[in-house]
Structures are given as C-alpha cells and as structure tokens.
C-alpha cells in the first residue's frame, strides 16, 4: 500500500544533545521525538505508529562501530507534533508554494525551551517548543471558567497559586523569515555565533539575524544578467562548525566553494575552490548530471568537508583543493543502469550524507531502502537495509550484497531486482552515540549499536 504523499518524510535532524529527533514531511508537519531516560525492557513494543502514517522502528546495527561507547537504552517516543507550514499561492507569479519541509536545523539549548528552524521552498520559521506542567489558579478578576467577574462582587483578595497539571508541550512560531527568495530554498545553516543563519536557494545565499525578520543580507549571488547564460546552480550550503566567518556551498557542476565573509561583503569571489578533474575515460552523456553535488557537510572537527554526488561520497581536506582525499563508491553497480534511471527521473534524486560523532564513519542512502556506511580508519564498508520484512525487533541487521550479472548467491540481491521507488534520501546520526535515524518514505527507522 502506497503512503499518502503528505506522510513522506523529507528531512531528519537530531538536536545538539541527541535527546530530541525532529522529522519534517511533505505535508508541512514537524514531528519531534524525545529519548526516554529509563531502561527499556525486552517486552516493550519496538514501534510507535502515529496517526499521520509515520512509523518509528528500532533495530540493532551490526558490530560495525567502535565498542567503547557508552550506551543507554532509552527509546525515542513522540514528544510533539505541529503543523509548521501550510500550502500557499503566489498570486503575482501564479505559483503554488508547497508546504513540504525541506530542512530542519536545531539551535543549541539555552534554557528549558527548545528552538528549531524549519523551511519550505520560500519561508523559514523559528519555532519555540516548550513544556507546561503547572497552571495558575485563584484569579481575582476571573472565575474558574476564565470569564471576567463583576468587580462590584469581589469582596476578598486571593493569592494565585500554581497547581500541577498534565504535561503539555507547546510549539509556537517566534519568527517568520519570508519574502527573501525568488527560487526554492534548498539549505539552511545556523552559524556558530548563534546570532545569524543563512538560507540558500538555486542562485542566491542570504544571511539573516535571528532578531530581524524583515531584511536579510545577500552574501552570494550567482544569477547571470542574462538567464540564458546560466551554467550552474547552488545545490547545498553550510557554515563552518567553529569559524563564524566561513561557509561552503556546492554546485550542480560538482564544485565546492569555500567563502570568507571577512574578505568582502558579497562573497562572489571564493577563497578556495574544490574540484576533481574528470577522468576522460569515464565521460558520458550522464557525466554532468551524476557529478552534481546533492549534499555538503563539514566534519565536526571543521577540518574536512564531505560531499555526495549521485554515485559517490567524497571527503575533502580543507588544505587540498585539487582532489578529494577519500572517495567511496555508494552504488557503482548502477553505472550500467544510468539510462533507465534517467528515464524514470531517479538520476535527479538528492541523497544526503552524514558523519558520526567522531568523524570516523560516514553514512549515506541508496535504493531498495539500502543505506551505506564507510569506516574511514579500517576502510571497511557495509550495506544495510531499512525494512520491516527483513528485521525483527532487537534483531541484528544483516549486511546486504548486490550482485551484477553472473551467478547470484543465496544472500545476494540482483541489481535488476532493486526497487528504485524505495530510496533512503534522508539520514541523521546522533552527535555522540552510535544511534542513527533513517527515513524510508513514511517510515522512520532508528538503529543503535547492539546492546548486550
């Protein structure tokens, strides 16, 4: 049974502590999961099924990660659900603006409340998520139902008191940053100064102050005077994790530009330019399409950047611009299938990539609900499948293998039988533990290291 389009998950993001996990979907909803602190028993249900069609399932990863991590057995349960964006219509351009959540970014927690940014194609919103477990009682000018009382009937003065109540989680929009993008927003990134953030669309990147909603500062503009001369678009952008003046953005030509906001107000001139020369022997009709970068991520250390194109994940050292220091083949067996992938538009899918907390392992998605992990130290890699059919609760995920032609072993799957409608585009990794979240259409899978 196909899921409703509105239920398809479009972004996944852990907060800075990993205690909360937010998902956004094509229906404009944000669902936040909170990690329970108590130890879970084996009998507890592994799945939480929500009315929106979103399902959360928890399974164990194979022993691919390091063994010296501290593990807690808390499950992620629904904490808050709210409608972030609604469908709109631009009457000047006769364009429908989808409610789909393109990206969610958390702000570091400063007090009891949580703050996050969410964006659709045109509008970024800052949301405050807070708890309330007490309510005031004993008003002087209101009765218990909240109606105003006649002052003439008030003969005594009461001192209001706070009474316990059932926990309520409230999500309130604190800021709405609108009307600054002509094209579709593909990235938002919070700066390390926590005072500013940037939003990027196909041709421009804007810098915002969290306190100012009615104006932004344009820091990159690659729109040519004549649109017929357009040769590339911006595909992703991110701030450096420690230096508030530095950011990178990637392009559809497979290049990455590092910019320094101290150099000039408009960062049209890059500080560094990362590009790998193309191998002429691999040149084909599809070369330009598959070299387009769909995601760019700084490592937590700030020393490296990781990029994802259609077939590979590359790791670049900030001090070496001419080629990546590591290249990982995600699904090289699809090279022979590019023609059919072009015909069914899958070749334009935008896969994301993530680092683990120590920058030693990277993860990205593929087709058939497969996702790939690459250990940078041991050079080992594994293909895993996010599937209810092949995973019992608490079972260890078995590595999967794809065979290309020839004899197929019993545990292998043929490249011709891969399901291209099942794809893992969005993944997230807990900032300090080996817990990952994987979005497969309307299912959210949460995997953790095997706990003895």
Q: In words, what does this structure look like?
A:
With about 450 residues, this protein is mainly β. The chain has one domain (about 5-40, about 50-450): 7 Propeller (Methylamine Dehydrogenase, Chain H). About 0% of the residues lie in helices and about 40% in strands. The protein has helices spanning about 285-290, 340-345; strands at about 10-15, 20-25, 30-35, 45-50, 55-60, 75-85, 90, 95, 105, 115-120, 125-135, 160-175, 185-190, 195-200, 205-210, 215-220, 235-240, 245-250, 255-260, 270-275, 295-300, 305-310, 310-315, 325-330, 355, 360-365, 370-375, 380-385, 400-405, 410-415, 425-430, 435-440, 445-450. Strands 4-5-33-32-31 form a five-stranded mixed beta sheet, with no helix packed on it. A four-stranded antiparallel beta sheet has the order 1-2-3-6, with no helix packed on it. Residues about 40-55 and about 65-70 have low confidence and may be disordered.
Describe the secondary-structure layout.
Blueprint: E1 9-14, E2 20-25, E3 29-35, E4 47-49, E5 55-60, E6 76-83, E7 88-90, E8 95-97, E9 103-106, E10 114-119, E11 124-137, E12 161-177, E13 187-190, E14 196-200, E15 204-209, E16 217-221, E17 234-239, E18 246-251, E19 256-260, E20 272-274, H1 287-291, E21 295-298, E22 304-308, E23 312-317, E24 326-329, H2 338-343, E25 353-355, E26 361-365, E27 370-375, E28 381-385, E29 401-403, E30 412-414, E31 426-429, E32 435-440, E33 443-448
Parallel strand pairs: 5-33, 29-30
Antiparallel strand pairs: 1-2, 2-3, 3-6, 4-5, 7-8, 9-10, 10-11, 11-12, 13-14, 14-15, 15-16, 17-18, 18-19, 19-20, 21-22, 22-23, 23-24, 25-26, 26-27, 27-28, 31-32, 32-33
Organism: Mus caroli
Protein name: Serine/threonine-protein phosphatase 2A 55 kDa regulatory subunit B
Family: Belongs to the phosphatase 2A regulatory subunit B family.
